[in-house]
Amino acid sequence: MPTAIFFDLDDTLLWDKKSIETALEKTVNDAKELYGTDPDKLLAAVKEAAPRLYQEYDFYEFTKMIGINPFEGLWGQFGDPIHHTFRQMGEEIADYQKRVWQKVLQSQGVSQSGDTLREKFITHRKNSPFLYEETLDVLDQLKEHYQLVVVTNGAPSLQLEKLRITPELVPYFDHIVISGNIGEGKPGQAIFDHALRVSGQSAEDVWMVGDNLRTDILGANGAGIHSVWIQHEASKTPGEGDGTPDRTISRLKEILDLL
After folding, report:
1. Cα–Cα dist 197/256, whole Å
2. What is the pLDDT of residue 238?
3. Rounded distance, CA 24 to CA 48, Å?
4. Dihedrals φ, ψ of 123, to 5°?
5. Sign of the CA dihedral 1, 199, 184, 71?
6. Neighbouring residues of 159: CB distance < 8 A, sequence distance ≥ 6
7. In the CATH scheme, what architecture does the domain 4-15+130-258 have?
8. Mapping DSSP to helix (H, G, I), strand (E, B) and coil, where does residue 241 land?
9. N or C terminus: which one in the chain shows less Cβ crowding within 10 Å?
10. What is the pTM of this model?
């Protein structure tokens, strides 16, 4: 049995997909009130436009390495001083955010800047933090017996903002390790090596719990850490390029039965 458990953050402890979806839905409904646009069409348009426009920026390859997706890009401020590409993102990200919303409005025949919807989406996302319903109960039970560490991909400023708006989560963890501080995201080994070092643990004494087969599970396997995959969708199975988990659960609370 482990002496420490590493946890992914987004869509493992935090329900980030629900937060993004909620913020998008509120924003397209705002657009309906402001401009008379169809919410469903606008929602489909922004889901297509954001990933496409994100790839046009010089920082895109860096975000893939660190693990920052286009919808995080729609509300993050970035500008973290630790890396020149974060500083570049800080200078350019508002342009990306405004362009996405302007383009989707144009797709609906509305000639307006994207500034208003940009601000509304950022506000809605900050006001829409969601934890999975069992997260705190599971951490309560684990904290008494194991060292707990967050190992998350992303920009430090954005990941810490997510934790700032869910302050009840932070006290459970001895360490919070963020890929942007390391210079490489999961599944790269540097972030796992760092997490092992700061926690004082050996790989064989750690379990890694996460929802992503290509980052959490593949990375843990490479580091010699026992991997536990949260399979949120029963239809999803490991494919080519994915890691093969040592154990699979469908909900976070099932980790208690494994231990």
Report:
1. 25
2. 81
3. 13
4. -65, -45
5. positive
6. 9, 152, 176, 178, 180
7. 3-Layer(aba) Sandwich (3.40)
8. coil
9. N
10. 0.95
Q: Over the range 181-198, which residues count as b (16 or more CB within 10 Å of their CB) and which as e?
A: bbebbbbbeebbebbbee
Tens of pLDDT, residue by residue over 80-108, are 888 899 999 999 999 999 999 999 999 99
* 162 vs 126: CA distance, rounded Å: 8
Place of tokens 């987004």: 10
Contact yes or no for 184/203 (Cβ under 8 A): no
Residues 6+ apart with CB under 8 A from 94: 118
Q: Cα–Cα distance between 182 and 153 in angstroms, integer? A: 10
> Residue 241 has what pLDDT?
83
Domain boundaries, the chain: 4-15+130-258, 17-126
How many residues would you count in the chain? 259
Does residue 234 have a pLDDT over 80? no
* Cross-strand partners of 140: none
